Amino acid sequence: MRKNLTKLEIVRKKPEIDAIFRNGTKYSCSWMRLIVAPNECEYSRIIVIPVRHYGNSVQRNRIRRQIKEIWRKEKPNLLSGFDFAFVVYPKKVFDHETQRKQLLQLFSQAGVYLAQ
Length: 116
Prior knowledge:
The chain is an alpha+beta fold.
């Protein structure tokens, strides 16, 4: 099994990102906002955006890797055909399990999580 995301699973183009923010539904927790928008693809795509003042590049890249890893492991339990934008805010550092639980709670609120 692939450990990284394919090029198709990552949203990269500015018009696509703008469409997610314009048409998506927002769900929030204390350190993150999840924006979910339907796409015309048969697969789901993801983008992780730490806010500008999140910290240095090491911290921003680490939170990107952590969220992508949680999403990759939970991908079989998510509905396909959606774009997910994660906007991450600076907050107290959580352990991996706490991050996972909060992400699953946001997925459940969005109605895209199958295994509940």
